[in-house]
Amino acid sequence: MPPRFEGQRRLPGLDKIALIFAYYTILMRWLSRKTHCTRRWLSGQSIPRRVGMGVALYLVITLSAYVAFGGNACAVAVNGNVVAVVSDKKSACEVLGGLLKIKSAQAGGAVAVAEKITYQGVRAKQEDFNDLETLKDRLEGTLTFQTKGTAIHVNGEAKVFLKQEEDAKSLLGWLITVYPVEVGEQPEFKENVELVKTSAPISDFLGLEEAKNLVLLGTNKVQQYTVKDGDTLWDIARSVKIDMDQIQFSNPGLVPEKLSIGQVLNLSKEVPLITVVATREVTVNEEIPFPVEVQKDDGLLFGEQKLICKGESGERIVTYRIKRENGFETDREIISQTIVREAKKETVAKGSLTMLASRGGTACLSWPCAGGIESPFGMRWGRMHEGVDLGANYGSNVVAVAGGTVIDTGWQGGYGKTVEISHGSGLVTRYCHLSSICVDSGQAVERGELIGLVGSTGNSTGPHLHFEVLIGGQPRNPINYLE
């Protein structure tokens, strides 16, 4: 804060004039009443001479009143608050003009001040004056310098400020092309996005590249990682504590299996400001899995089963409406379907399976391998993660979580080498990304029996076990069944 100074109670201009006039009138009356000599002397003079003497006397009185009531300094105030006291208004205006010139050069265009600046004549001691550099620093720290530009509004709220409207249009056009487009898709923005002419503080305006980062990553302060020899996306995600899907989200077009040494990845825990939505319709032929009816047979040992009636898969033609957001599938809706062949039910007899109390109230399963949960069950960046990922070393043992019968082994697309075990009562467990399989289809297994080894086959960027629990064909959260 500037120092206190004399005369801080300032009088408006008209009040000063009235005070000076009153001072002059009182003085003249006092002279006319108290000084007979002066009155006689004035009466003996000619009219012009008396007028001239009166004017001279008035000027003397006015000058003395100015000295008594006027100011010797200029107080500069911002919105009514004094920020500095300088010698004169002209110097203060020159300081502000120089500051505006500097800010205009930084902004690349005309700059205005949001606050109201006033100048007031005051009396102050010489030692209380501020130098012009101090005035400049205080104005720069107090004033808001604004310039005109274009704001990108997302759902009615200004999110990104750019100086040129052409840059804002270029950014939105670029964003539409960032994510790969499938045949038949028409990308558009999920949010209501508008370009609005506006004025804003120059510090809010971004360059085009900074604005791209902000829209795509949710921040313009981008943390980056350079891929080293031996890195996998799994390793990187674990080291920086960011989900693998989120890293892919921040790097459109990234192929996890094709990381290269020296490749630079953008890392962000924020979410994009604008979502690109693409919708298409596809028609495919699909297999209809056959339902399995399980009959209890007390004559079979625990974990044994006997095929009574073999099931047959059906076939259907399905048309889906598929919705993707920022490159990730988020919804798949069936528009129509035609059943080509009905599925035939399979009936099996199984030995008694002891169903123990659990958090889910259904069964109690042992852990399939050593290691904690690296990625849980549930929605994960716009798509469903239908199991849990358990961190384990390459080649670690994978065991059956309960007694049952192996119903499927082999390669299953993105799951890689997979084993499926049916435990009866519609309960099936699935073990994925194995490096090797140690059981065969139809083989009976007991709880804790070795069925495979941890690996990284299929759509995986590091060794781990993807484990699923299905009841009646529907995925359930495995954590509710593991003891």
Describe this structure in words.
By secondary structure, the chain is an alpha+beta fold. It has helices spanning 13-34, 36-43, 47-69, 89-107, 132-142, 165-178, 208-217, 233-240, 244-250; strands at 73-78, 81-86, 111-113, 117-122, 145-154, 157-162, 188-189, 193-201, 223-226, 264-267, 276-288, 292-296, 305-309, 314-325, 328-341, 346-350, 373-375, 378-380, 383-385, 388-391, 397-399, 404-411, 417-424, 427-437, 444-445, 450-454, 464-471, 474-476. It has 5 domains: 13-69, no CATH class; 73-143, no CATH class; 144-274, LysM domain (Membrane-bound Lytic Murein Transglycosylase D, Chain A); 277-350, Resuscitation-promoting factor rpfb fold (Single Sheet), CATH 2.20.230.10; 373-480, Glucose Permease (Domain IIA). The strands form 7 sheets. Strands 17, 20, 21, 22, 23, 24, 25, 26, 27 and 28 form a 10-stranded antiparallel beta sheet that branches. Strands 3, 5, 6 and 8 form a 4-stranded antiparallel beta sheet that branches. The longest helix is centred in the N-terminal third of the chain and has 23 residues, at 47-69.
